[in-house]
Amino acid sequence: MTPTSVLFAPAGNDPGARRRRVWLVAGLCGLWLLEGRLLAREDGYHHAHLVVWAAGLLAALCVLPWAPLALRAAAAVGVSWSATGYLMAAGLHLPVWGLTESAALLVLLVLVAWRAPVRAAVPAGIALAAGVLVAPVRDTGVPGAAVVVYALVVAGVASAGLCLRYRDAERARAVAAAREAERLELAGELHDFVSHHVAAMTLLAKATRTVAEDARVAASLKDIQAAGDEALTTARRLLRVLQQDAPHRSPLPGLDGVRELVDDFRRAGRGPVRVDLHVDPGFGTGLPPELTGSVHRIVAEGLANVAKHSPDASAVRVTLREAERRLFVSVRDDGAAGQSSQRPPEDTGGLGLVGLTEHADAIGGSLTAGPVAGGGWEVLAVLPVQRVHR
């Protein structure tokens, strides 16, 4: 269950992204030093050497996130084409083909094809690609096969960036669909439970009105009853609109189904997987049905993620406990976790977790999924407790 790694994602608090950026910058610096050594071995045209070497450094600096991507791409294009114009106008040819400059332009090309808005990506991508292709033309008298090789590299890099853009777009659509499905489910729960309490209040107002002696009290109770009836009618109408294309909803399962989930997972497991279920005494007593249904769904999704993403897990522990008026629902396995940092559920590859995160936020709770200290992976939900008193 390894989080999706993003090569050029904003570093933020992600150590993996920072490490990838450090390696990228280190590689460009090493290439720049190698290019300087190659240029130092050439005789004559020292000012041309300096132009090529400085252009490589400035283009490499444009890879760093010091400004918006479009601005950095424009700056790199300006540097590259300025160096190209000077060298071609002076008729100077150097055998290094702008190594650092071309590498930096290729990095920016994949970033532009991946993340820049389409309106800016097209001209910026063309300008970056042209900057790479012209390097062997300006730096050698007879470019020959070098231009063909550079063209193939540019095509491959641009295709990789477009593939990443398509993947992210598909992922965003899938996440949006999962969140929309969860909102429809919440709308159904609103009808099932909130409307139930409103109906009870309406019936109570009606019953009290029949025995009320004060005419003003009876009139107020009648208004309350009318308002409750109108609220129920509106809720049913809105629910029909929201769920007109949604499949039929089954009743929410309760805590009794959690043990069945664990037993089913144990029977369907690959190999000798130890599955433990620990439930604190009194857990679930007096909880509203929508909350017990949430617990069941979180456990189900957690076990599904173990089966899908941690096939090497040998032990799974499901823990249900209550402390400080909060419910803690944990599904933890000892499979390979990949990284040591927590990631949002939408970055872990599981769309089911995206919907559950939406659900937990809607009821005032939270849900996290990621590797834990000591190895393994954990899905942990923290839900507020509001008991039903009868």
Quick structural overview:
This protein has three domains: 15-143, no CATH class; 175-242; 256-384, Heat Shock Protein 90 (2-Layer Sandwich), CATH 3.30.565.10.
How many domain units?
A: 3
Give the percentage of residues in beta strands: 5-15%
Order of helices and strands: HHHHHHHHEHEEHEE
Main sheet characteristics:
5 strands, mixed
How many distinct helices? 10
Unreliable segments of 5+ consecutive residues: 1-13, 338-349
Strand order, sheet with most strands = 1-2-3-5-4
Gross morphology: elongated
Helical fraction: 55-70%
Taking Cα atoms only, what radius of gyration do you get, to the nearest Å?
31 Å
Distance between the termini: 43 Å
Q: How many strand segments?
A: 5
Overall residue-averaged pLDDT value = 76
Structural class, judged by helices and strands? alpha+beta
Topology:
Elements: H1 15-40, H2 46-61, H3 69-90, H4 99-115, H5 118-139, H6 145-211, H7 215-242, H8 256-268, E1 274-279, H9 289-309, E2 315-323, E3 326-333, H10 351-362, E4 366-371, E5 377-384
Parallel strand pairs: 1-2
Antiparallel strand pairs: 2-3, 3-5, 4-5
Helix pairs in contact: 1-2, 1-4, 2-3, 2-4, 3-4, 3-5, 4-5, 4-6, 5-6, 6-7, 6-10, 8-9, 9-10
Explain what you see:
Helix 4 packs antiparallel against helix 5. The protein contains ten helices and five strands, in the order ααααααααβαββαββ. The protein has three domains: 15-143, no CATH class; 175-242; 256-384, 2-Layer Sandwich (Heat Shock Protein 90), CATH 3.30.565.10. With 390 residues, it is of the alpha+beta class. The chain is 63% helix and 9% strand. A five-stranded mixed beta sheet has the order 1-2-3-5-4.
